[in-house]
């Protein structure tokens, strides 16, 4: 998109936010709100930056040096947006894999999570996308993504108990097929 087209799109998006402010009963022209449409569009640039990113660029692999046991990155901070209400869900994720000759830098696991978290999501799919990307680009013997998160769309609306935490686990390869390997994973990530 060229600059002028981008400006026109942004104008319409900001205008739609003004309509939304009116809809909820606000005065979009009062001082505190005048810059809000602009701020929201800017914030979206970060919150939804994942659409511009390709996990393939991230997952450059290198030789494992013979290491073939579980690699796990624990307690990765997670912030995402639920696609049903466009409200945040947030918590922690554990990402693990068992190398088959190749490994990735450990920081790449949190970056991979971010690529998918910075999109509209459901928690279940987020974990699946992380393990699918690992299986595709790293080709490990197993991959896992366990997510514990709280969803503001439930908490703020009082649909469920305020402190309810949703837990999902996406497992592939040895983590799925071998009970002992799965048990080892869960003991490694236990709080
Ligand atoms: Zn929701």
Write up what this structure looks like:
With 191 residues, the chain is an alpha+beta fold. The chain has helices at residues 3-23, 36-47, 55-58, 107-117, 123-137, 152-155, 174-177, 179-189; strands spanning 62-63, 71-82, 88-98, 102-103, 120-121, 142-151, 166-173. It has two domains: 3-47, GTP Cyclohydrolase I, Chain A, domain 1 (Orthogonal Bundle); 56-189, GTP Cyclohydrolase I, domain 2 (2-Layer Sandwich), CATH 3.30.1130.10. A five-stranded mixed beta sheet has the order 5-2-3-6-7. It has a two-stranded antiparallel ribbon with strand order 1-4. The chain is flat and about 65 Å long. The protein binds zinc ion.
List the main descriptive attributes of the protein structure presented here.
191 residues; alpha+beta; GTP Cyclohydrolase I, domain 2; two-stranded antiparallel sheet; 8 helices; binds zinc ion
Helix/strand layout:
Layout: H1 3-23, H2 36-47, H3 55-58, E1 62-63, E2 71-82, E3 88-98, E4 102-103, H4 107-117, E5 120-121, H5 123-137, E6 142-151, H6 152-155, E7 166-173, H7 174-177, H8 179-189
Parallel strand pairs: 2-5
Antiparallel strand pairs: 1-4, 2-3, 3-6, 6-7
The protein binds zinc ion.
The gist of it:
The protein has 191 residues and is of the alpha+beta class.
């Amino acid at each position: 998109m060229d600059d002028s087209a981008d400006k026109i799109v942004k104008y319409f998006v900001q205008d739609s936010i003004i309509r939304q402010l009116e809809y909820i009963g606000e005065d979009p022209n009062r001082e505190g709100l005048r810059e809000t449409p602009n701020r929201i569009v800017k914030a979206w640039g970060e919150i939804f930056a994942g659409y511009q990113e390709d996990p393939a660029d991230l997952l450059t692999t290198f030789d494992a040096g013979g290491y073939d046991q579980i690699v796990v990155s624990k307690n990765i901070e997670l912030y995402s947006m639920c696609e049903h209400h466009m409200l945040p869900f947030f918590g922690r994720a554990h990402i693990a894999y068992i190398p088959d000759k190749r490994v990735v830098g450990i920081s790449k696991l949190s970056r991979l999570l971010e690529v998918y978290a910075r999109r509209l999501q459901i928690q279940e799919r987020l974990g699946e996308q992380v393990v699918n990307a690992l299986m595709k680009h790293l080709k490990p013997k197993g991959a896992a993504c366990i997510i514990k998160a709280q969803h503001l769309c439930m908490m703020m609306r009082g649909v469920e108990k305020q402190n309810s935490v949703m837990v999902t686990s996406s497992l592939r390869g040895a983590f799925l097929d071998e009970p002992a390997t799965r048990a080892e994973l869960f003991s490694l990530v236990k709080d």
